[in-house]
Amino acid sequence: MNWKIIHIDETDSTNQWLKDHCDGVPDALVVVADYQTAGRGCGTNTWESERGKNLLFSLLIHPSDIAANEQFRITESVSVALCQTLQAYINSRVEIKWPNDIYVGDKKICGILIENRLQGNTIKESIIGIGLNVNQTVFKSDAPNPVSIRQLTGKETDLEELLQAFLHAFDVTRHSKTTCFTYKSMLFRKGKYAIYEDKTSCFTATLTDVLPDGRLLLVDKDGQERLYAFKEVNFII
Fold first, then answer.
1. Half-sphere exposure of 188 (CA within 13 A, CB side)
2. 3 state SS of 77
3. Cβ–Cβ contacts within 10 Å for residue 84, how many?
4. Rounded to an integer, what distance in angstroms lies between the CA atom of residue 174 and that of residue 50?
5. What element of type H or E holds 15?
6. Which of these, 18, 55, 195, 231, has the minimum number of CB atoms within 10 Å of its CB?
7. What stretches in the chain show pLDDT beneath 70?
8. How do residues 46-63 score in pLDDT, each as one tens digit?
9. How far is CA 89 from CA 2, 136, 177, in A?
10. SS3 for 98?
């Protein structure tokens, strides 16, 4: 795909920039910022990034081939593309912490915020925000477990080269029929017992599956299946 890339010095968030500027804009637009004054994660979460050190960008696509009730496919495509891209730079295994945080070991290297605008049974447009820790070495916020490529490898990474590698990978995963299966194979804690917390208690369970609608299936030590939508369960790291 022929991506149009717009570089800006600073904005509140690249997702918001696209919302303010994307009316009538065709598919395959990327906005990249050197700095975000109000970078957002999911919910009320924020994203810390030192100016010019990391990849802060958002993509605009019009996924007309994806029905509204299949919108989790976008999450799968983006997450897999990021893992595959990063794996070329990092020796340690890169994984997806459900639904779409990218982890190396117990450390978070990348966050994703996807905002879909629906029109009937279709997705009118999808804005995909990505914050990827690349060359930052010191994190000053109270985020519990950030890590960057530089911290893992000891090397500087070219931001433009990394962006192009991701866009190429996303072009592939977006249209691949095997992306769902690849997503599941890359899941953080897949098949391992670990501690989770829901609104009633902490419990030990194994991550078994992710359903097509994006819900997480855990099986606890008593063999009971537990099904969760986003934000209904926490991973205890």
1. 23
2. helix
3. 19
4. 30
5. helix 14-21
6. 231
7. 38-49
8. 556 688 899 999 999 999
9. 24, 15, 25
10. coil
